[in-house]
């Protein structure tokens, strides 16, 4: 496979090709930045135009692409595979030696201005290709450099740390406001921690994938003994014994047939796993050349030194850290050590990959870019900004959201109504403003069941991306939480922002479409008999800030929760059960109180999930009222009483929307599941089910 990449030494960089492997390259001390990149062409999906003002005050039209338009065709297998890793590693194995050096794959494309630097530190293989499945996606928002350590290189671990440190200091000097990410796998994670400990004043972020915390002697000692008695010519022996040679026509034919079979018959993760098995079996000589006996013995000794050095310096680390821990790595990973690291490192997030093994970055179901999004670990400045550092979901990430909520979407067959300028109610979202800033204010169903259908339909029908204001609990990474924090990933992927007055201000300033629930957790975790009751603060919290930017406020109501479930155990009931009472108190304490000082019921809300009994699903109904335009009313609404009048108007219209839907749904012949199923069986499963007359 012909592969073009950018090769960086400690002095500069150049472009090389796999035909020369890594033997020939030139460096330039004067030029450090790549001035040309490989062009990428793609088909632009359906989009809408948005007008903004640039720095000079001129109107600029920006095309906003609709990522939902290609959801149904989205596939997870567009990334490179393990076979690609092994084929490209073949060129690195015969690189002729030399010192360790940096390279940047050109497939990463052009990064956005101000993208942080990502330095990948390889694991025991040393090729630097460990991120090959992630290059394209990560390359959209990182400047990626990968460290290549030749097979014959015997640079000690302490000298590798110095080499990495030299690069870190050089880049920090050039761009002091740009964070530097160190992504290390196994032994590379040890090196990353060592570099961070030696440079506490440099802005570093660490992503440690299966960091080597100890060496399992039960495995390593027999392995060392076996390696010492093996002959040196293992690669040649493998080719002779198994008659497997790279480039052999039979091997190529088997690979082509397997790819065709797995894509058509197997598909999904199962096919990917079998492809990986075949890839390894047909590339055994490459693997054995990548880690010959003497190199593997050297790496094992270097590993022991790196682990000891890391453990002695870990208390000096000040960088924020994300640890990715495989559930099935028993050789170099110890869960107790990871727990100790998470408590020792000052800003540490631990994310367990339950079904992953020794090399998760090469596995089918692991997407490092998505993990970074879900942990809010991406930043361009000194700290993560939920608005400016947000990365839109990819088409495949959207498809995953649709698939995850498929039962809810199909089971409730949502009906969405909106109001046109002349007051006409239509069954579509035509009445919603296309241009921001817009503030959607409404009622929160139990557990927020209404969110997924609404957010996805607005994106699908109108290419409107809602930025929801979310409880801060969603963004906390609590190691001892009573809930699995992964359940909140969907809110971060779809653009949730911690609720605060300042974040409302910043979102409206960016002309965003913002979703706000004044009732918040109190409505989403309401008690028995409280369905469709608003629990809003007494005073306005959003009107004046919305008027500052001339925003439109869209009041909306939604009904249907009583048609899909019934509350049997609310927070009052749980507090009367001793075991559950302790869990409720811990969960409430972990969640924190965003209305601290408020003596009302809103300031003393328990944070616990109610016990629900599901019903045969009914139907969800959404009604978006006529937008309230605040343009030109900033001065008028500085008066608190005037702002309060608008606030009460919004609240009243939300209640009217709910009341309207509760009455009209009684006349819907397709409110229940059976009539809807029969209708779709006769008209097509993708057909839109009718509803009540408007």
From TrEMBL:
<dbReference type="Pfam" id="PF03982">
    <property type="entry name" value="DAGAT"/>
</dbReference>
<dbReference type="InterPro" id="IPR029058">
    <property type="entry name" value="AB_hydrolase_fold"/>
</dbReference>
<dbReference type="InterPro" id="IPR007130">
    <property type="entry name" value="DAGAT"/>
</dbReference>
<comment type="similarity">
    <text>Belongs to the diacylglycerol acyltransferase family.</text>
</comment>
<dbReference type="Pfam" id="PF12146">
    <property type="entry name" value="Hydrolase_4"/>
</dbReference>
<keyword id="KW-0808">Transferase</keyword>
<dbReference type="InterPro" id="IPR022742">
    <property type="entry name" value="Hydrolase_4"/>
</dbReference>
<keyword id="KW-0012">Acyltransferase</keyword>
<protein>
    <submittedName>
        <fullName>Acyltransferase-like protein At3g26840, chloroplastic isoform X2</fullName>
    </submittedName>
</protein>
<feature type="region of interest" description="Disordered">
    <location>
        <begin position="36"/>
        <end position="59"/>
    </location>
</feature>
<feature type="compositionally biased region" description="Polar residues">
    <location>
        <begin position="36"/>
        <end position="45"/>
    </location>
</feature>
<feature type="domain" description="Serine aminopeptidase S33">
    <location>
        <begin position="159"/>
        <end position="239"/>
    </location>
</feature>
């Amino acid at each position: 496979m012909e592969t073009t990449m950018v090769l960086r030494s400690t002095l500069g960089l150049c472009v090389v090709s796999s035909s020369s492997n890594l033997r020939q390259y030139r460096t330039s001390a004067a030029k450090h930045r790549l001035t040309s990149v490989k062009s990428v062409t793609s088909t632009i999906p359906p989009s809408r135009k948005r007008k903004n003002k640039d720095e000079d005050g001129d109107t600029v039209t920006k095309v906003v692409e609709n990522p939902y338009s290609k959801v149904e065709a989205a596939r997870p297998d567009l990334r490179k595979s393990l076979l690609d890793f092994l084929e490209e590693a073949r060129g690195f194995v015969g690189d002729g030696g030399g010192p360790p050096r940096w390279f940047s794959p050109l497939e990463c494309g052009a990064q956005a201005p101000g993208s942080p630097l990502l330095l990948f530190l390889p694991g025991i293989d040393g090729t630097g290709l460990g991120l090959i499945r992630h290059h394209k996606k990560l390359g959209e928002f990182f400047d990626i450099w990968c460290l290549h350590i030749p097979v014959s290189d015997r640079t000690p671990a302490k000298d590798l740390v110095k080499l990495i440190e030299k690069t870190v200091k050089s880049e920090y000097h050039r761009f002091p406001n740009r964070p530097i990410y160190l992504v290390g796998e196994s032994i590379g994670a040890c090196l990353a921690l060592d570099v961070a400990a030696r440079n506490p004043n440099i802005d570093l972020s660490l992503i440690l994938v299966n960091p080597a915390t100890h060496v399992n002697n039960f495995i390593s000692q027999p392995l060392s003994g076996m390696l010492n008695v093996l002959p040196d010519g293992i690669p040649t022996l493998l080719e002779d014994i198994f008659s497997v040679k790279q480039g052999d026509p039979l091997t190529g034919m088997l690979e082509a047939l397997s790819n065709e079979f797995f894509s058509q018959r197997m598909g999904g993760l199962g096919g990917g796993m079998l492809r990986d098995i075949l890839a390894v079996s047909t590339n055994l000589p490459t693997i054995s050349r990548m880690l010959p006996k003497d190199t593997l013995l050297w790496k094992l000794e270097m590993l022991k030194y790196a682990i000891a050095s890391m453990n002695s310096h870990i208390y000096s680390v000040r960088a924020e850290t994300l640890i990715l821990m495989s559930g099935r790595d028993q050789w170099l990973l110890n869960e107790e050590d990871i727990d100790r690291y998470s408590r020792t490192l000052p800003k540490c997030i631990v994310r367990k990959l339950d079904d992953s093994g020794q090399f998760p970055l090469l596995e089918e179901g692991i997407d490092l870019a998505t993990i970074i999004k879900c942990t809010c670990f991406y930043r361009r400045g000194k700290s993560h900004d939920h608005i400016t550092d947000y990365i839109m979901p990819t088409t495949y990430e959207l498809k995953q959201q649709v698939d995850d909520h498929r039962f809810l979407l199909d089971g409730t067959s949502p009906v969405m109504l909106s109001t046109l300028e002349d007051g006409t109610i239509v069954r579509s979202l035509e009445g919603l403003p296309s241009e921001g800033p817009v503030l959607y204010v409404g009622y929160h169903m139990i557990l927020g069941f209404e969110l997924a259908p609404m957010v996805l339909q607005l994106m699908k029908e109108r290419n409107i991306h809602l930025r929801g204001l979310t409880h801060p609990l969603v963004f906390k990474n609590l190691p001892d939480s009573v809930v699995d924090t992964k359940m909140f990933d969907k809110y971060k992927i779809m653009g949730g922002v911690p609720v605060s007055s300042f974040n409302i201000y910043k979102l409206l300033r960016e002309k965003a479409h913002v979703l706000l629930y004044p009732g918040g957790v109190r409505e989403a975790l309401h008690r028995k008999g409280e369905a469709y009751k608003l629990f809003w603060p007494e005073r306005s919290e959003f009107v004046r800030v919305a008027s500052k930017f001339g925003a439109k406020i869209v009041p909306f109501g939604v009904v249907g929760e009583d048609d899909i479930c019934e509350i049997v155990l609310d927070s009052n009931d749980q507090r009367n059960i001793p075991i559950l009472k302790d869990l409720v108190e811990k969960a409430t304490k972990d969640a924190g109180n965003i209305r601290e000082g408020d003596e009302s019921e809103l300031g003393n809300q328990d944070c616990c999930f109610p016990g629900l009994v599901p019903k045969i699903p009914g139907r969800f109904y959404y009604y978006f009222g006529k937008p309230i335009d605040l343009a030109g009313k900033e001065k008028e609404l500085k008066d608190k009483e005037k702002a309060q009048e608008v606030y009460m108007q919004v609240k009243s219209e939300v209640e009217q929307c709910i009341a309207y839907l509760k009455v009209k749904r009684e006349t819907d012949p397709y409110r229940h599941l059976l009539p809807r199923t029969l209708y779709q069986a006769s008209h097509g499963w993708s057909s839109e089910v009718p509803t009540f007359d408007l």
